[in-house]
């Protein structure tokens, strides 16, 4: 089954992305780094998994080119984030192309088809996805199949 990130406090996603833009590129962005940067709350534990899912870090927690490009490109960052969202959520967007505009009641059933997660996790998956779509802006809808 496909696994999607679950961030317990989706508001921390924006803080994390702002942190990437405003700080230096670390040699590793592991749990210790995340805690040192202020992401210490219990709900922040899954932020590293989100970075891995989106491609900001590799399997060894090393920042990727996406981390560097997202940090350095200013307004282009939304487009880079949008591409990462479209890539990571490709299985969802393949079965529900309108997910970027739909609410929890419409999208959660599709997450349910793709994962074996409990309902509480499915709802958090949706809100994680929703925050990422909002931060990526209109670019997240580019190259998605038409609903017509």
Topology:
Blueprint: H1 11-22, H2 31-36, H3 47-54, H4 65-72, H5 77-88, H6 90-95, H7 104-114, H8 119-136
Helix pairs in contact: 4-5, 5-8, 7-8
Structural summary, described in words:
This protein has one domain (11-139). It has eight helices and no strands. The protein has helices at 11-22, 31-36, 47-54, 65-72, 77-88, 90-95, 104-114, 119-136. It is 55% helix and 0% strand. The two termini are 29 Å apart.
Q: What proportion of the residues form beta strands (DSSP E)?
A: under 5%
Record field, number of beta strands: 0
Oligomer: single chain
Main sheet specs? none
Question: What portion of residues is helical?
Answer: 40-55%
Tell me the domain tally: 1
User: Mean of the pLDDT scores?
Assistant: 90
**Low-pLDDT stretches:** none
**Which sequence of SSEs, written as H and E, runs from N to C?**
HHHHHHHH
Structural class: mainly alpha
Radius of gyration, CA atoms, in whole angstroms: 15 Å
What gap, in angstroms, lies between the N and C termini? 29 Å
Shape descriptor reads globular
Alpha plus pi helix count: 8
């Amino acid at each position: 089954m496909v696994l999607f990130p679950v961030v317990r406090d989706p508001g921390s996603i924006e803080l994390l992305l702002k942190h990437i833009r405003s700080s230096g590129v670390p040699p590793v962005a592991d749990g210790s780094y995340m805690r040192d940067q202020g992401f210490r709350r219990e709900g922040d534990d899954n932020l590293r998994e989100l970075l891995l899912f989106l491609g900001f870090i590799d399997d060894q927690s090393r920042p990727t080119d996406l981390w560097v490009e997202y940090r350095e490109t200013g307004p282009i960052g939304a487009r880079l984030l949008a591409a990462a969202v479209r890539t990571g959520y490709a299985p969802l967007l393949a079965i529900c192309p309108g997910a970027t505009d739909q609410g929890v009641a419409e999208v959660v059933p599709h997450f349910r088809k793709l994962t074996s997660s409990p309902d509480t996790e499915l709802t958090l998956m949706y809100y994680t996805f929703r925050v990422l779509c909002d931060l990526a802006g209109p670019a997240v809808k580019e190259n998605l199949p038409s609903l017509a």
